[in-house]
User: Fold this.
Amino acid sequence: MRPTRIRDQKMKIERFLFVTVALLLTYSTAQAQLGNRINNAVRNAAENAAVRQAERRTENAVNKAIDDAFDNSNSNNNNAGNAQQGNSVQPTGGNAANNSQPAVANQDPNTPPRLESYSQYDFVPGDQILFYEDFSQDAIGDFPALWTTNGSGEVKTLNNYPGKWQQITSKNGVITYLNKLELPPNFIIEFDYIPYGDEVGTGGFKLYHDAAGRERELDVERFPGQMGFRFYFQNNPNDAWYAWSIDTYDNRRSGNDRYGQTLTSTNNSIKSGQLNHIIVWVQNRRVRVYHDGAKTMDLPTALFPDMTFTRLMFMTSRDDNRPFFSNIKITTAAPDVRSKLLTEGKIISYGINFDSGKDVIKPESYGAVKAIADVLKENPDVRITVVGHTDSDGNADANLDLSARRAAAVKNSLVSQFGIDASRIETAGKGQTEPLAPNNTVEGKAKNRRVEFVKQ
Assistant:
């Protein structure tokens, strides 16, 4: 082989090796750069994820702290302001013009207050329902058939409070029940009330007795009838001179002797834009008022002696407050639970209440549950069966199941909250199978929704 040809082949080999090495170096550099970019991207993504996770944790911690602060504030001091919580609702049905008014706040149904927090609720509803009204028999948009008014009002529904509600829509408006009542010296009246419209809303009711020879379905006098008492409440005691007010009168007396003292309280004002369950216990001359887990008034001599009542009126006194009323119930009060259970062998309770279709005991039931617990503690050999009953609304099988679950809830409360031995209590659900009254009236249905305690 000639030297020139050999030299050419060596140069080709050298060029091949050079190109190969260059390509390898380029690939390694590119790979390193790509690896660096990938590593940086992964590292940045991880750092960003960590930051986002930390932010979420911080946000959740802050939200929980705020929620806990509000919860503690509400449980420890129910007068801490009128801040609205939850989802807003509007009336649905009736006059659409009223639907633009301020929202009504929602209460979380998943976290009901425990009975222990209502330990000041010492009243015990009796075994007779004297009056009940939830406007369920009335058409949406109509004025309720069993009431009359000096102004305007209509039945509506609300988008996050169940049932039907009567709204008073006129300034200084009143609604009066058309039929006469016969109330005993000892009774309890309770109702749900939602102030609606302005920040300061005044509402109330009057219980009075028709004047002799002057029976009137609608009496709009300041002190109507022969005798009675007026009960007012406001939802902003910071700007008003009272949260609760009661004054009495007896028109059989002469001069200023006919007017009793005006008695007021600033405790536990009603909440603006929320459902307020108000309870008034009349016991001869004594009047006690309960709201939001506390006794707001206890007046030993609020009423004149020997007062009786035959008429019921609800009212509002402000143009820009158009409140809602519903679930108005009057029962006898303070039954002899021990005697009825031990001697008669059964007691019927209308003081243990549940929301419609649910088996969670409402906290205002504290006094009624505690009364049963006290009898069982005082008589350790007594065993009982808790029996739940419903009205005929809805499916019969569903009502049977609901009544059984409600009876079980009462047993659980007696065991877990009052320390009664579970082996002493059995439960049963009767649903709608054992009515005490026809289910074709509002009051009849209310009488059938009950809890019975039967001695074994």
Remarks:
- The mean pLDDT is 81.
- The radius of gyration is 34 Å.
- The chain is about 25% helix and 25% strand.
